[in-house]
Amino acid sequence: MADKRKRRRSELNPDGEAQLPFKSSLKPDSVILQILKEFSDCSTASSSSSSKTLDDLGLSSSCREVTDLSLSSVQSTIESLILKIARSILSGNGFAFDVPSRSAANQLYVPELDRIVLKDKTALRPYANISTVRKTTITTRILQLVHQLCLKNIHVTKRDLFYTDVKLFQDQTQSDSVLDDVSCILGCTRSSLNVIAAEKGVVVGRLIFSDNGDMIDCTKMGMGGKAIPPNIDRVGDMQSDALFILLVEKDAAYIRLAEDRFYNRFPCIIVTAKGQPDVATRLFLKKMKMELKLPVLALVDSDPYGLKILSVYGCGSKNMSYDSANLTTPDIKWLGIRPSDLDKYKIPEQCRLPMTEQDIKTGKDLLEEDFVKKNPGWVEELTLMVKTKQKAEIQALSSFGFQYLSEVYLPLKLQQKDWL
Predict the structure, then answer these.
(1) pLDDT of residue 7
(2) Who's near 254: CB < 8 A, 6+ residues apart?
(3) Could you tell me if 338 and 381 are in contact, meaning their C-beta atoms sit under 8 angstroms apart?
């Protein structure tokens, strides 16, 4: 009985509070800050070197990429396309759109660029065909609506666009998909079309930037942070004394770090898209990386979907591979939570969740992806996940205390440079 009391006392600190696991391994903050300073300096030096393009690799003729275009350029490109269609109809040939194929078979992972790109295969979308007539009509209608936006110089959301012709579109996924097709047809980024997604991502921490002329200090935005503007072209004058950018998968972890003001203890910028990354958050992250020359560390769930989310930020999504040059942030480090962390940090069994059959299939499919194979550390972690059939959320760390994430786990990760 006396031994039990002694053990319980040894697990308490002098203030009578439970001793957090591994907290004794932490070095003073000044030591960790020096490690981060060296890491940030190395990242700045590597970012200064020129990045390769498809032209440098000689792939520009076999792959397709879009660029940012001015409203006047988008408008004139649409008008030229419609004139071509009109001539085809008047000559008795009907009309068809030559649409770049966005299927998985027409995509290519380029190791030198570490991102997915779209190859140059196209498919005809004729109006005089029963299988494509409706989609051709939707494409024409989207082109008309985008032309109106160019004339009025206004932005609308994808939801607004859908509600302009609900009977034709039937479902927003259809108008959204054709909107991406239109970007490919015109050769411009989706943001060039003045169609935006609703605000989703947020940012907090050591960042000051201008939003349409208004200066925003992200250290003074409360724990909710600043919503990432949907019009990234209006964002500028980025200033920061941060040492790194912390990309967080979920809102819950973001709120914990924001409320604990983790960015003051270890100067950083914290960003989240609250799950699946949206275009605005991906553009904003890329802009910060390029302008501030800061390393990016990612905190995601230890499951196949966490790694998929990380890969979308880093290598691009297959759905928007045509715009991967603008939407991807190179060299994101996987900080946690990783499968090996579950045993390393002694995550309790009741906080580990069994992987479903779909989870295991997704994990095995990821192991076949070229962007995973390129990183041996990712392969090792993903193999361990599939083997143990266990997954865990970031919130599993809360079993050691609500602030364990910000007080022990992340500082120790940074101290040990434990990222992939």
Answers:
(1) 43
(2) 202, 204, 225, 248, 270, 272, 274
(3) yes
Q: For the sheet containing 107-110, what is the strand order?
A: 63-64, 115-119, 107-110
Pairwise CA distance, residues 388 & 105, whole Å = 32
Strand partners, 272: 202, 248
Nearest to 331 by CA among 279, 301, 294: 294
Cα–Cα distance measured from residue 197 to residue 174, given in angstroms and rounded to the nearest whole number? 15
Those residues with Cβ within 8 angstroms of residue 52's Cβ, 6 or more apart along the chain or in another chain: 112, 113
pLDDT tens-place string over residues 365-387: 999 999 899 999 999 999 999 99
Here the tokens at position 66 are: 């879009």
Which residue type, as a one-letter code, is found at position 264?
N
pLDDT tens for residues 251-307? 999 999 999 999 999 999 999 999 899 999 999 999 999 999 999 999 999 999 999
The structure tokens listed for 411 are 């500082």
Contact (CB, 8 A) for 390 and 352: yes
Long-range contacts of 355-362 (CB under 8 A, 24+ apart): 355/303, 355/385, 355/386, 355/389, 355/390, 355/391, 359/303, 359/304, 359/391, 360/386, 360/389, 362/304, 362/305, 362/308
Q: Has 365 been labeled as part of a binding site? A: no
Which pairing describes strands 296-299 and 332-336: parallel, antiparallel, or unpaired?
parallel
Who's near 45: CB < 8 A, 6+ residues apart?
A: none
Taking alpha carbons only, the member of 310, 233, 225, 227 closest to residue 262 is 225
Cβ atoms of 225 and 200 closer than 8 Å:
no
Find where tokens 């609308």 sit. Answer: 156
Which candidate in 163, 254, 263, 322 is catalytic?
A: 163
- Asked whether the beta carbons of 69 and 326 are under 8 A apart, the reply is no
Reported pTM? 0.89
Does 171 carry a binding-site annotation? no
Decide if 168 contacts 138 (C-beta within 8 A): yes
* Torsional sign, CA 323, 326, 330, 335: negative
What is the residue type of 181?
D
- DSSP label of 294: -
pLDDT for the residue numbered 122: 92
305 catalytic? Reply is no
> CA angle at residue 92 from 91 to 98, to 5 degrees?
85
Query: What tokens appear for 341 in the block?
Result: 């962390």
